[in-house]
Structures are given as C-alpha cells and as structure tokens.
Amino acid sequence: MAILTVTNTANQGQGSLRAILAAAKAGDTIKFSSNLAQKTIKLTSGQLVINKNLTLDGADAPGLKISGNNTSRVFFVSGVQPWIPLTVTLRNLSIINGKTVAVGDAGGGAGIWAENNTKLTIQNCQFRNNHANGTAGGAILTGWGATTTVINSKFDNNSCQGNDIGGKKSELAGGAITSRTGTLIVRNSRFTNNKGLNGGAINIRNSQTTIENSTFIRNDSSAGGAFAPHTMGYGGAVYTDGIGWNKPGVIRISNSRFERNKAAGHGGALLLWTYEGDKSIVENSTIINNRVIYNISKVSSGGGIQHGNGDLEIRNTTVAYNRAFQQGGGLTTDINYSTIIANSTFYGNRAESPDGKQGLGGGIMLNAGSAPATITKTTIAKNYAGWQGGGVWGNSSKVNLKDSLFSDNFAYNGGNNWNGTHHVGQSFINGGGNFQSRYPNPNDVKVAASAILTDPKLGVFTDNGSYLQTPPLPGNPIVTGGAMRISSSRMSANSSNNLGVIDVSSIDTELPGTDHSDNNTDSRTDRELPLAPPLKDINSPGLIPISDTSAAKQPELLDLRDRLTGMVSAEFTVSSEAAYNNSGGFYVVDNLKGHIGNLKPSDPGYAQAAVSQRLDLDQELLPAGKLLAPFLIADGTPEEFLAHNPNNQNGQGKLAYFAYIGANPDGVDHVRQLDKNTFAFEDLFGGGDRDFNDLVITVNLA
User: Partner of 634 for a Cys bridge, out of 347, 353, 607, 683, CB 3.0 to 4.6 A?
Assistant: First the structure.
C-alpha cells in the first residue's frame, strides 16, 4: 500500500493525476504536492476513472481543485469487475465544473458517478458548479447497494436536469446527491443553491438515511413542477421515495437547519415519502422560511414538510414562517400511520392562496387517516390560513392533544365574516393540560374540551440562526402547556461549520424581494405572493423591492486598488432566485468610467472585450491594485455568449449585462451593489421585475 504523489496540474502525462490513477494499485493513497495549493487541475480529455480501492487526499495542497472544465464528468468510480465493490475515499479536495451531456444514467453524477456497491466516503470536500444533464445527481450519483458517507463538506450551485432516455424526465433528479437503493450518511455539511427536479439538494430512493448537523439553504426543486402531472418538483432540499429496500428503513434528520428552500407541489424543504414499516424522524432542527408553489396540477402542500405513509416523529423542532398555497403551511402529513409531534414549535406559517381566500391548516394539516396522532408539549402560534384552521386542520377523532398551547392563530375564512376555526376546525381528543388564547375569538372552537382560555402573553419567536431554537414562552404564569427550552451545544448556521466557506444566508435573509417565476420559461407573468417576514399581524406587508437609485449612482465595482502588489485570495458565494441558469464574473477596467484600453462601455466591441478578458474565478485569486467590474450572462455561459452573440444584440443569442448602462443592450441598469463586496443582478431584457436577486455574488477577500 504505497503513497503516490501528483506533482503537476497537467491533464495527462508523467506526474499528472490521470497518470497516477492509472499506475496506482488497490489500497494505495494518492496525495498532491504542496506546490499545487490553490491550483486547478483542468480535465481536457474526459473523466478520470477510479477502478480500484483508493484514497485521494489533498491535505498537502490546500485549495486544490479538480475541474471537469465544463466539458466532462470529474470522476467515474467503477471496478474492472462491476460486481466486486470498491472502497474509495476523497478528502480535502474541491470537485468543480463537472458537466455531462448524455441522458439516462450515463449523464448522471457530473462530479462523481459511483457504480453499484461502491463504498464512497467524502470528507472535507467541496462540490461546486457541477451540472448533470442525465437522470440523477448533479454532483454525486451512487448506484444500487452503495454506501455513501459525506462528512464536513460543502455542495454549492450543483444541478441536475433529469433527462432520461426517450425524452422522459427522471424522478431521481437530485440537485447535489442522488442515493439509489443503498445507505446515505451526511454529517456536518452544507448544501446551498443546488437545483433538481425532486430534491433540490438530495434525492433518496430506498436508502437508509442519516442527516446530522447540516445546513440546507436556498436549494430548489420547483423546476420539476412543470412536468408530470405528479411526482415532480417535490422536496426543495430533500426528497425521499422509500427508505428501506426489502425491509423497513429509517430516515433520521437531526441537529440541522433548512432555510429558504423552494419546491413545487409538495414539501418546501422536506418531502418524506416512505412506505409501510418505514419511519421518518426529524429532531432538534429548524425548518424556516421555506415555501412550496403550485405545480402544473395546481397543488401546493407542506410549506416546510410534506410526509406520506410510514411513521413520523417530530421532536424538539421549530417549524416557522413556511408557506404553502393550499394546505399545511408548516407541515402536511397523512395519518394512515403513527404521527408524534413533541416539544416542538409551529410559528408564523401560512397556508394561503395567491388571492388570499383559500388555504387549510396554516400550521399543520393532518389529513384524515386511520392511525392515531399525538401532539404533546407543542406551541402552535401566529399561523395563518386563508380558509380554515389557522393553527391545525385535521381529523379530530384520531388526534390526541396534551400539554400544548395554541395562541393567536388566524383563519381568514375566505373573506367571509365568520370569525371561526382560527385555531382548529374541530376539537381534538383531550389529553389534558392544553391552553388556548382568547384572541381572535373566545367563542371559537376549543382545541380540546377542557382547554383553558386565557391570554398566554406569549413572547415573540426570534430566530437565533441555529438549528436549535428557544421557543417563545408564555408570560402568563398559569400557562403550563407548550414547547419547553432544551439545552444544546449550539451550532450557528451563520458560522462555516469548520468548512472555511461563506454562509450565503447572510445574503439570503437581507436581500429583499423574490423572483416571481414559477417555472423555467422566460415569460414570468405568473405572480406569487412574496415570502412574508415574521408576522406582526395578519395583514403584515410582504417584502419591499429594492429602490431604483441608478440615475445618480456610481458604477458597481470591486476596488482592489488598496492591495498594492501580487494576487489577492478570494472566495465566491453565489445565490440565485431566477428561473434562468445565469452565470457571472468580473473583468478588469482601467478607470471608474469602465474603459478597457481605448474602448468605452458604449463602444461596439466592448461587451466582447470585457467577457473575453474575464478573470478565472476557479483560481480564487484576484489581481491586486485593480478595479474589477461585474458582469452577468443571462441564461448562459460566457463561452456561449462569445460564440453566438459577441455583439450583445437582443434576439441574437445570450445577452450580457454590465455595471455600465452604456454597455447593456437595453440601456437599463442591471446591477446593484448591496455592500462593498456583494453584487446583485437583474437578468431580464428591459429590467424585468427589478428584484435584483437573479444572481447574487459575494466576494470574501483574504
């Protein structure tokens, strides 16, 4: 068992990674020379093949990236004899810019495709900008019987188009990872800005699953909602279709945070579809500010979580400010099997149609079933339904309610003057110790027969940025029901979880407005209501668009003139609310007016010159002493722009937009600078909806 060392960044030849992989023997470890730190190995002759038990460790070359160069998959893991399982470990590496164009499985796993029975371990790695055209797994696809373990890793801006053989779309199209009939373990990891058709971040098919101490922000599966008529667009962050294979399985999600994920149809953050004998457990976690929009069938259910079949347990978890158009703003679950909700908080969720008149179960929708449900020590407060059941709507004969608090929930009753069903539609089985606020109507349906009506003087819920929240507590000493605070060694979702990466939530929570596109077309005429901020009352306004100050503003530039010499280390965080697959970057300008040599922004040829001299952001190095100007390629890449529309003419191909209005084909401002190093773009010709969140790039300078 030897240690072999990669000594250069060449695609092939002596000392290259490709050559070392070919020369290695089973059980060897491949390391990388320290002179490769912050360098990129770009593949120019196709994917790298791992066909034996190996460990690849980039610890000696921090910041080393292996790039598919937007032309090929990065790694294909397959034994010489496919039925013999391989054990492969990747540590301390960045897998970037993998791209597949084939359909079916051959086009899956743009970062890594690991075939059947592989034991794959990913540790301290980053997967960025990997895009699979085929069935499954934008960054990683693992085959039947595989065991996949992901530890302390980051997945950002990966995607899967889900194109299967025969022009069909695949239900396995997870944006970052697809685990197919095996075992998946994810610990201490982050998933941001990934896009799939089912599972914006992770797609699970019949795989035992553990997700611990992990964060999921702005992942999106809503593009799948345009297909089907069903089983597409689900699970903005995580989608499951069965947990076990030939025996019951368990998915356990613990100590994790799901924020601002988006789906169409079912499950803004989580779609947990299981089968008889399976169990779903969500514990010590936060599900916050997720949403589910309509799919093609006009279904919108489970803004935070949608669960179906199997047993469900939710413990010590906060479900807050999630949204669905039809039912279950926080949670929708079928109670054909056991449902247990304990010591949890459902706060500020909304089930509300775009016209404001429909929506059942603002906090929870318990669909009628034959199995019992138990809600214990839970606070259900300030949830809103457009129709009925502001707090909970469900089958009262099967729900046992104990030691719980319902406060200030509201049902709009479709605009009718009924003033009823604010907390529940029917009284639940009385387990004792329940409390109900007098507001909005002291004569409303009681949550349970002996529930005590009072003013609980409930405190305001404040998001602490962690996976484990402090529930809002009653100020009225007689109230003994509701969620209780539990102690924990708290992981901050605003920290990097020891990953050394930027938290995009610092942008996400501050950037006003939402894109109003529900699908992957460019018409963008369907308007959805904006994601509501924490509710002060039932008429809280939505988010406020960024004001237009372009008439008197300075150009948006990244100013490195105070860095005198050499190169500046930089890390880039990218987020997007757009239906378009946008790309962006920076180029050097000679002065504040944006000149490139003798070219001014309004001159013919400026756009081509700017994009042609764009900086290679994969190197994560920027030139000191320079002014850098941002640019956006709408729904395309710089290569596509230069190949098909270098003159930047509307109707001729991909369009480029710049900080200098004179360079833009429509003469309209398309860039906002949110702070010194954060740039926000609008991607539609003519200015679009001017929400400036179609691409947001933050630069973190060393």
Answer: 683
